[in-house]
Design goal:
- The structure holds two protein chains of two kinds.
- Chain A is built from ten helices and ten strands.
- Chain A has a six-stranded mixed sheet, sandwiched between helices. A four-stranded antiparallel sheet of chain A has the order 2-1-4-5, covered by helices on one side.
- In chain A, a hairpin with a 2-residue loop joins strand 9 and strand 10.
- In chain A, helix 3 runs parallel beside helix 5 and helix 5 packs parallel to helix 6.
- The longest helix of chain A is centred in the last third of the chain and has 18 residues.
- Chain A is globular and about 55 Å long.
- Chain B has one domain: ABC transporter involved in vitamin B12 uptake, BtuC (Orthogonal Bundle).
- Helices cover 73% and strands 2% of the residues of chain B.
- In chain B, helix 9 packs across helix 10.
- Classes of the chains: A alpha/beta, B mainly alpha.
- Chain A: Keywords: ATP-binding, Nucleotide-binding.
């Protein structure tokens, strides 16, 4: 379970271009719930995700994961419970290392790293099996450096890395936005499969309204650093893209992309 | 013809001495490779850590300490120096190159303080090279054997370490710090340990060199970084850097080839003062090569720098 309590974050405080990115934001995500976050540019989506992951310290407020206050926990310690897939495929993987080494790093995310050999036969077999579920042939390229993979392959790898080890919380930061439509669809399908089968508590930020309609248990719309609207349950099941877009105060072109 | 044969004769006579020297200096090249390649932390501390190791070792041996123990103390001092550079970068967000220059400048004074004078002779004192089996002490062969054994041990240890779980995490910090952090790896600890380790090797090299040449000098590090970079580039050109094994082998192979080349140049009559210019031009040429191949217009930055 994720709880964000009265989170507040101001950029450039006291300067003419002061910007309140999170304005006493409250949000609760139940264990196993899949929340989809939408909102126009500057609504605070990325700030919220960065605050949850620990990359950005809050000015005030609290963040709790499964009841534990992690507000002041640094990123690498929070990482034992949180997995994240970034928008940029380059960010989520170590380019100069091999596919297997990246998988190893992810596996050790929540474990104590020892001086034992990293890539042993047992692990390699396990990685082969997990990667084969993607259907991209990555299971035969375990010793390929990640920089030689395409953006879609890298993002798929990031996803498999993130969902391994069943994190307490999965953060997806527009993780299909940088991909071509076909690859985006593949990655999205793999995401939904993993989230469903592992019952992961997931927070996904997206600009794709169709995805917001199709996936997740609840749509959370942010505006000016607060939760403007939440649609769940029956209502979420019946929502359409057109209705969702109507809720935006400013209808930018970016919003219409999904329509 | 006369010139060629005399050059060849004097070069061949120098081969064992040069080989001993290059095996000792291979540790500096290793201390440059780790930050530049593994950690993507371009670091100049080695220029100060190398004489630091030399000065510490010199003073301790002059005071009658066991030569092996003196090397270990020098190594620890180098480790601390590297940790300081990493901390300056991490805590104050100062560029890695500037942090290294700061450290190296401050180390110059520290080295002078340690020795109390700019030059210290330990000629005739016991050294680790006297322990080489089967050979008469004092000859290059004994230095080749001892430096070679230590080098091989360090190479094997690092080749093992970089493939362990901890070692893989350390390499991830160099490859993508943001990703490493998101995978639960402390960028601070990895960077401090990694840069510290590199400077420890540079200091070890200084300590071995002092025992080899019989004196310590505060200026012994002058230009060592560019020499090391040149050696590293040669090594990488010869053995490549595709894998951990090759990347680790490159400093050793590079150091051996580079110092033989220098020796050849000197044997051919090149004035020693021109050596730094020649080395600098060589490093420049190696760095410029990709941009020259691509033709006119700037090339993308070759070194990936951390902010």
């Amino acid at each position: 379970m994720l709880e964000i309590r009265s989170a507040r974050k101001t950029f450039y405080a006291g300067q003419p271009d002061e910007k309140v990115a999170l304005d006493n934001l409250d949000l609760t995500l139940q264990t196993g719930e899949f929340g989809v976050v939408i909102g126009s540019n500057g609504a605070g989506k990325s700030t919220m995700l960065n605050a949850v992951s620990g990359a950005l310290p809050l000015d005030s407020g609290q963040i709790l994961i499964n009841g534990d206050d992690v507000t002041n926990t640094p990123v690498h310690k929070r990482a034992t419970r949180i997995a994240r897939v970034f928008q940029d495929p380059m960010l989520g993987t170590a380019a100069s290392m091999t596919v297997a080494e990246n998988m190893l790093l992810a596996e050790l995310r929540s474990k104590k790293r020892t001086l034992a050999r990293g890539l042993n036969a047992k692990r390699l077999a396990d990685y082969k099996e997990r990667l084969s579920t993607l259907g991209l042939g990555l299971e035969n390229r375990l010793n390929t450096k990640v920089e030689l993979l395409s953006g879609g392959q890298r993002q798929s790898l990031s996803l498999i890395m993130a969902v391994g080890g069943s994190p307490d919380l999965l953060l997806l930061d527009e993780h299909t936005a940088a991909l071509d439509p076909r690859t985006a669809d593949l990655v999205m399908q793999a995401t939904v499969r993993a989230v469903d089968s592992l019952k992961l508590t997931t927070l996904m930020v997206t600009h794709n309204m169709q995805h917001a309609v199709d996936y997740g248990h609840r749509v959370i719309m942010l505006d000016a650093g607060r939760v403007k609207l939440q649609i769940g349950g029956e209502e979420k099941a019946n929502i359409t893209v057109a209705k969702l877009v109507d809720h935006f105060a400013v209808k930018t072109d970016a919003m219409m992309l999904g329509a | 013809m006369e010139f060629l044969s005399s050059t060849f004769t004097s070069y061949v006579a120098l081969v064992p001495v040069t080989l001993a020297q290059s095996l000792i200096l291979a540790f500096v090249v290793l201390g440059i490779m780790i930050p530049f390649r593994t950690l993507h932390f371009p670091d100049l501390t080695s220029e100060g850590a190398y004489p630091l190791g030399g000065c510490v070792c010199g003073v301790l041996i002059a005071a009658g300490m066991n030569p092996a123990l003196a090397i270990i103390v020098a190594l620890l001092c180098g480790f601390l120096a590297g940790c300081c550079t990493a901390l300056i970068h991490l805590r104050f967000r100062i560029h890695t190159l500037l942090a290294g220059i700061l450290m190296m400048t401050m180390l110059y004074s520290i080295n002078l303080r340690i020795m109390g004078k700019s030059n210290l002779s330990i000629f005739g004192s016991d050294s680790v090279y006297n322990w080489a089996p089967f050979v008469t002490p004092g000859f290059p062969v004994s230095k080749i054997i001892i430096a070679g054994i230590i080098g091989a041990a360090v190479f094997l240890a690092l080749n093992w370490f970089f493939k362990t779980e901890k070692g893989t995490a350390l390499r991830a910090v160099g490859s993508n710090p943001a990703m490493a952090e998101a995978q639960g790896i402390s960028v601070w600890i990895s960077t401090i340990v990694g840069v510290g380790l590199a400077s420890a090797f540079s200091a070890t090299s200084g300590a071995l060199m002092v025992q080899s040449q019989g004196f310590a000098d505060v200026n012994m590090g002058l230009g060592i970084l560019i020499n090391g970079l040149a050696a590293l580039m040669i090594g990488e050109a010869v053995v490549g850097k595709q894998s951990v094994f090759r990347q680790l082998l490159a400093p050793f192979v590079g150091a051996i080839i580079y110092y033989q080349l220098v020796s050849l140049c000197l044997a051919a009559g090149m004035p020693p003062p021109d050596l730094k210019l020649a080395t600098g031009l060589f490093v420049l040429a190696m760095l410029a090569l990709p941009s020259l191949k691509r033709g006119r217009g700037g090339a993308p930055a070759r070194e990936k720098l951390r902010e």
